[in-house]
Amino acid sequence: MKAVLLNSPGDFSIADLPTPEPGPGEVRLRIEMSGICTNDIRDFKGECSYTYPRIGGHEYGGTIEKLGEGIDSSRYRAGQKAVAYIIDNCKSCYLCKRGEENICETLPTNKTFQNPGAVSGYKGFAQYVIAKVEDLFIYPEETDFKTIAFTEPLACVVNSVNRTPLRMGDDALVIGGGTMGLLHVMVARVRGARVILSEPLAERREKALRLGAAFAFDPGSEDVQAQVASLTSGRGADIVYNTTAAPAIAEQAIAMTAPGGTVVMFSSIHPNTPVPVDLGRVHSHQVNITGAVSPTIRAYHESVMLLSKRIIDPTSLIEAVYSYRDFGDAMACAMRPDTYKVLLDFGDAG
């Protein structure tokens, strides 16, 4: 099979590797479309502690090509459009048993991240990937692969929103208007919130308004905290979703959260430097600060439902589609600060 093999930071090749065979309870997916994530960019730059060589890609969708032994053929068959839950959770640790399988205790040391002497990674930047049947989600035949490739990123956002007590009529502030920020706009709007966006790029602010945001402010020329206070009778936003990586913005996000409100640190802080927090205000106003990382199984299911039922259409967030053969150009596009989602097309892989 063809695969984009990251040999070391910045050094990749289009490799010919053995086609994997599914074992009992597994299926082989033929990848059709795979998105480039910020974490793939950090892998490419070497801004991670994972082992190389590595095959990245965890935002993928494809078709079932081959079933291993013990698969229920009345439920699964070759040719079905599908995605797989990407978290290789152990299902037995304390966190998995609590329903927090997305932060399974075994994740930091499993072969997705640490596989010395062999290939690490989620393996979505390849023609084929093996998935456990218990991790499969099936899409209707009419769903296109560009939409299906948004399953994992949308599921991350659904998990973020699920971790907040967002109510209909709440004011939700989204900081950052990139792909993940605008997915937050869409999900919060569907949940009945009045959505406010803080984003310096005019084109992204305009897109957010088209996608359902009520207001969009430029933090470079406007006092966003004052604007949010004005819109909320001085309280601040009930829910704040910080989708940016800058430590200084994380501090501002907390300050713009209303008494009794919740702020989500959705993006990893990069670089991960300490952030000053007014803990007196957190205490006195019962401000909740939480994080959100990879999706839970519930969030994956809800993402599939939102996309397959066309409740959310993410395709306006596609920046470009490249053949996997043009991975270098695709990565260069994805690394630009003003782009949305870049997809790799594996549909023509030989």
Tally of individual helices: 11
Annotated CATH architecture of the largest domain: Alpha-Beta Complex
Order of helices and strands: EEEHEEHEEHHEHEHEHEHEHEHEHE
Spans with pLDDT under 50 lasting ≥5 residues?
none
Largest sheet features: 7 strands, mixed
Cα-atom radius of gyration = 20 Å
Structural class: alpha/beta
Percent of residues in beta strands? 25-35%
Cα shape: globular
> What's the structural domain tally?
2
Please report the distance between the alpha carbons of the first and last residues. Answer: 8 Å
Please state the average pLDDT score: 96
List the helices and strands and how they pair.
Blueprint: E1 2-8, E2 11-16, E3 26-35, H1 38-45, E4 59-67, E5 81-84, H2 94-97, E6 128-132, E7 136-139, H3 145-148, H4 151-162, E8 171-175, H5 179-190, E9 194-198, H6 202-210, E10 215-217, H7 224-231, E11 237-242, H8 247-255, E12 257-265, H9 279-284, E13 288-291, H10 297-308, E14 318-323, H11 327-335, E15 341-345
Parallel strand pairs: 8-9, 8-11, 9-10, 11-12, 12-13, 14-15
Antiparallel strand pairs: 1-2, 3-4, 3-6, 3-15, 4-5, 5-7
Helix pairs in contact: 4-5, 4-10
